[in-house]
Amino acid sequence: MSGGWTTIESDAGVFTHLIEKLGVKDVQFEELLTLEPDELRQLGKLYGVIFLFKYPTGEKRSDTPKDGSFDREAANDLFFAAQTIQNACGTQALLSVLLNKDGEVDIGKELREFKEFAGEFPPELRGETLSNSDLIREVHNSFARSSPFVDETTRAATEDDDVYHFIAYTSVNNKLYELDGLQPAPISHGDCKVSEFPDKVIPVLQRRIGRYPATEIRFNLLACVQDLRIRARELGDEEALEEQESKRNEWLWENALRRHNFVGFVGELLKGVVKDKLAQGPDAYNKWIEDAKAKSKKRAEDRRKQGGSGDDIE
């Protein structure tokens, strides 16, 4: 394989522009702030949801899922790929929704050819094919935060690490499926027409969250929906259209910042500050240093009191 996969953020702007670079048309992601079916319904045409949660690294795989049931035959009728490489689960989750909505969604030439090529493979080989796709990997990596200190090939997670994982939920063939590449098969949560998806998926998500301690709040939920500008144009809602266009511009700006390495800039800025302080004399310089040390110590103590938090990784 030519290169590794870097981590990407669970962010609506990242996921929206990622799928657009892969050739998907008229689809976007929206972050959900509540677990309410009405919030999902208000988004219009809904294709699925992507759920980010803390993965229990010490947990052993079971022959029976904690919720729902394995549908081992379903992989013959829908696109399900095993996750075979670290850090790819964000893109794998969004593809789990989109490749199962081909026909409802214009997934573009490249992804359609990928699906046709890998679709007849067993899940493990589909996962290997996805992991070795130069196009998908390069687009995925283009949304990673720029950092000169992080290698794109990272060590395997241990039980002491905070590890986060993406999975997908969508309705396929009138069934609600949980598509998690770390599981041996799609997980069925029962009958579910597309129109019933908001009402059926929320209880499943609530049960999953309920398995965590009440103090665990690090979850994120993104809805995969039709481009909201389409509905705004259809309704003639200029205010909503302007709001969506403004959001797109913000996403473009944020994604540009993610790709930029600010280390050189910060270094030059620090040189200028130090030069200015030295020009004020040794007393001013020493006071500045001591004040900075005191502030850093206080921030560290505050973090320890709050319990700290690990970096979000896939």
From TrEMBL:
A biological process from GO: protein deubiquitination
Enzyme class: hydrolase
Active site residues of this protein: 89, 165
Pfam families: Peptidase_C12, UCH_C
Segments of skewed composition (Basic and acidic residues): 291-305
PROSITE patterns xrefs: UCH_DOMAIN
Keywords, alphabetical: Hydrolase, Protease, Thiol protease, Ubl conjugation pathway
Entry superkingdom: Eukaryota
E.C. number(s) listed in UniProt: 3.4.19.12
All residue ranges annotated as the UCH catalytic domain in the record: 4-226
Gene3D superfamilies the record matches: 1.20.58.860, Peptidase C12, ubiquitin carboxyl-terminal hydrolase
Annotated family: Belongs to the peptidase C12 family.
Name the record gives this protein: Ubiquitin carboxyl-terminal hydrolase
Species in which this protein is naturally found: Lophiotrema nucula
